[in-house]
Write a structure and sequence with these properties.
eight-stranded parallel beta sheet; 20 strands; 17% strand
């Protein structure tokens, strides 16, 4: 019965004629409009590249929050890669699993799902926390590499409504977020869930598949429904299954952002094109401007926002980009003994991203019971508190031609660019600008010395000076006008004598 359903799905996915949809006029001067009825998205890059991959609401938003939460939080050990690593002989997860749960031939990953109870999950409270932190959108990791769906799925038998929490996590979060005027992200990591190495004994642990293959373990099972969790299905059945789950989430929850992890290149190009066309046409029919996010080089940059994991660009980007960053130091999912980044470090690196035309997707890590550790809440609340006072220098802004200057040394990021843990100080300054170019924000990544005369290097007359005459300079949070000069000879502001924000201080420069 299930096999027949998938063949029908494949037929439908490859023969459906997409209804007319229009293209939103982009900042790159594309020629069609999303609501005018003058355009259509077909499953080819030439058509899809007409879409504006970064709607204005997304460029304005600057901050979103998602969460790594699934059955992999039950052992609370290692990382969210526990489902894979527990099957790699000699790994710490392999040894932990045998000592804690039993031999892998007797207790598999699927046997941990009943312990993923989520009894403390509260979508309203989670959405409140995201909003308090200053996020404008949020949502779940809808499906990680492990193949477990965090939504009410008719297609995937391994889902959070039928198993584990027995609740529609994605649906509840969608409702809670939208009740607060926030948008919804769903992230997908399931492209590598297919078992691609069964016939290659030398590569049973191969990276092209999440679960190592072994005939003595459930990872090799071809029984129903185990084979769908561990990916033991023919590729001709798998590809429509990959696409069908995306279609299910789109139809049921209308996400504003769909974000993909790496290995999307393992999915045939025609399926990636079919997905993009389906999602963009679905959104167009609803009058919705949506975002597709990708890593590496598996979708065209003209169609999808580039994400750099745990890092950022080293200079201003002409295109809006994204970075996913986790609050924790050891794992994206909750593990026992987890430690967290200092709020000041997170906020300063966030400011650096915004100054370079980037947006941050911040990750939190709930426990298997659905509780969010207090240490994570404290970091989020510190971000929210800073943004409550200084958010006008962040939200709805655009980068300047020069992002700033300073003395901090940025390490190379593991996934490209620079790391997300650069240690900035008040000697590092970043700039943002209002969309009408009449306000410049100079953000010191620390507390500069009160009363000092500061030369803002980027704003010199021979560099990138203010576009219009400056009429007023102040420090956000301090009701006091500052002495300043911006002309052909001088370029400075005199800071107030009052103490300034230890995390980041914002000087507001208003023009006529």
């Amino acid at each position: 019965m299930m096999r027949s359903y998938f063949w029908l799905l494949l037929f439908a996915a490859t023969t459906t004629l997409y209804r007319c949809a229009d293209v939103r006029a982009s900042e790159r001067d594309t020629t069609t409009d999303a609501t005018s009825g003058s355009g259509v998205f077909t499953a080819d890059w030439e058509s899809l590249e007409k879409y504006n991959e970064s709607p204005e609401w997304f460029a304005d938003s600057k901050l979103g929050i998602y969460f790594h939460w699934g059955p992999y939080t039950v052992p609370a050990f290692g990382s969210e890669w526990y489902p894979r690593n527990m099957y790699i002989q000699g790994s710490k997860e392999y040894q932990h699993h045998q000592a804690t749960f039993g031999d892998q031939s007797e207790v598999g990953y699927h046997d941990l799902i009943p312990e993923f109870t989520g009894e403390h999950f509260d979508a309203a409270a989670w959405a409140d926390l995201m909003q308090e932190a200053g996020a404008r959108w949020g949502g779940p990791v809808a499906q990680h590499h492990d193949g477990f769906a965090m939504w009410d799925s008719d297609l995937n038998p391994w889902n959070a409504v039928d198993m584990g929490p027995k609740r529609d996590i994605t649906g509840e979060m969608a409702t809670a977020l939208r009740d607060r005027g926030m948008k919804l992200i769903t992230s997908f990591h399931h492209a590598r869930n297919l078992q691609r190495n069964a016939a290659d004994t030398a590569h049973w642990n191969g990276w092209s598949s999440h679960f190592p293959y072994h005939p003595d373990w459930a990872t090799s099972s071809t029984e129903e429904p185990l084979r769908w969790l561990y990916g033991n299905v023919p590729e001709e059945d798998w590809n429509p299954y990959w696409f069908g789950q995306l279609k299910e989430v789109i139809d049921q929850y209308n996400p504003d952002i769909i974000w993909f992890d790496v290995w999307l290149n393992l999915i045939p190009e025609n399926y990636r094109q079919e997905f993009c066309a389906y999602y963009l046409n679905h959104a167009r029919e609803r009058g919705q401007e949506v975002v597709i996010a990708h890593k590496k080089d598996d979708l065209p940059i003209e169609v999808s926002i580039l994400d750099i994991e745990q890092g950022g660009k080293k200079d201003v980007s002409e295109r809006v980009w994204l970075t996913d960053i986790t609050l924790s130091n050891q794992s994206w999912s909750y593990v026992d003994g987890q430690t967290y980044k200092d709020p000041a470090l997170v906020i300063r690196n966030f400011i650096d991203v915004v100054s370079k035309n980037g947006i941050v997707l911040l990750n939190i890590s709930p426990k298997a019971d659905g509780s969010i550790p207090e240490a994570q809440k404290q970091v989020l609340r510190a971000m929210g508190k800073w943004l409550h006072t200084y958010g006008e220098a962040i939200y709805d802004t655009r980068p300047r031609l020069e992002y700033g200057y300073g003395t901090a040394k940025a390490d190379e990021g593991h996934f490209g660019g620079q790391s997300a843990t650069v240690k900035y100080s008040a000697t590092d300054v970043r700039f943002t600008e209002s969309k009408d170019q009449k306000t410049i924000y100079a953000i010191f990544l620390g507390a500069p010395k009160p009363g000092q005369k500061v030369v803002l290097k980027s704003l010199k007359s021979i560099a990138y000076p203010p576009k219009y005459p400056v009429k007023r300079v102040s420090v956000l949070g301090i009701d006091e006008e500052l002495e300043f000069a911006f002309d052909d000879h001088d370029n400075y502001v005199v800071l107030p004598e009052a103490p300034m924000n230890e995390t980041a201080t914002v000087v507001k420069i208003e023009m006529e």
